[in-house]
Amino acid sequence: MASPSYGVLCQRAVVVKILSRGMSAAAHPQSQVDFLKGEPHRKHPGVTNLNTLRLPDELQMAAQSIIHRAQVTRLTDRSLSLTNFLWSRKRAVEDSTLRQKAVSLEKELWEKAMEKRGEMDEQLLADRIRKKVFSELRKTTYRWTTMKYDEELGVVYMVARLAGGYAAVRRAINEIKKRDPSFAPQSLLDFGSGLGTVAWASHSCWGDTLKEMVCVDSSGPMNILAERLLKGDDERAEPHFKQVYFRQFLPVSPKVQFDLVAAAFTLSELLNVKDREEAVLTLWRKTSSYLLLVENGTKEGHRLLMEARDTVLKKQEKTVHDTRPASVFAPCPHERACPKMALEPITPCNFQQMYHPLALPGHHDRQAEKFSYLILTRTEPSEAEAEGVDWARLTAPVQRRTRHVHCRMCCSDGQLQHLVVTARKHSRDVYRCARSSDWGDQVPIVRGVDGDAQSDSE
User: Fold this and answer.
1) Mapped to the 3 state alphabet, what secondary structure does 372-427 carry?
2) pTM listed for this prediction
3) pLDDT classification of 33: cutoffs 50, 70, 90
């Protein structure tokens, strides 16, 4: 019997390939919901992560010039120490909390003293207990201090935080730029502006539209340093971008609003809850579209942001100049209580951005900035969300395995979920989107699809 010709074999191979594609399509159905909006899976609407960031060249060169001229001794060691100090910083203990602790401790010491029933003078015993209470409180109470920057410490801070702070703010701003492409701010208010990283990050996104940038910082030396960075460390030079105004106090008029208001690593510098509430409400009053808050990716940083979130969403002001309601834009996909705050032990809701630090001895080529952020908005969401789809926030790195991925995420119902995504159960589109996503991105969850989801106690 004659063997089949090459042409016949090729035709058979094509038929087999078509049949296998049909079977694959049946096994891995396409999603009936159009959430890709014409984008490839690797660039789906929920992807907001950025590649490893570098400081703008002009900012990098200005910082290097300032470092060279400052001649600060042990600069690398001091910058590392400052970084560790700022990262481990906690909120100041509230006076009410301190009083409650003192009363409880005093009561406990009196009970122990009465059990012994010695013949000691009551006034003498009271003095001893009072001294013991003060001694214990001094040992166990966190000592919060205000950061005061002079010219030299400002340079140390610049080495420690310029690149990392810029990376965190730039990543958070990208959430707005990606999800609301029509947003073209003309004005910016940066409260606690420090080195001006918010202005630089905002300019990199909306340099064509921004006409006014007001940078407010109570530290005069820090404002001078920020202006030097803007002028390339040359007093006679024109600033790299204009219409930047440095102030030590917020604009007084409550009716003056800005398209974008930001406070990066600032809430942790305020003494108590009352000061933070007043600051957050003032910033919200001055917000026309978006309010961006960024803090360290620690438990303390996360608590500060949840405190600010509750302040804006729940506090009622006596005089309201802008009646548009507040809503959470990011990262929370809901406005319920944060599920991470209910866990024991509490784990912060934080994210990560890779960046290149300033080129100095002891600095690695790439570093990771862990940060927490919150974006509140007055505007209606411009993104036309497809019906039947919820977007969940990835709260941990995606674990990619053969034909499935593990996604730990915060969902629109206010619950933490651990979902194992497969093409068979969730559709090929959802699977490929999940596989292309990473920590901090949003992933589409098609309603009515039963998957291997379980409550995530982390």
Assistant:
1) EEEEEECCCCCCCCCCCEEEEEECCCCEEECCEEEEEEECCCCCEEEEEECHHHHC
2) 0.87
3) low
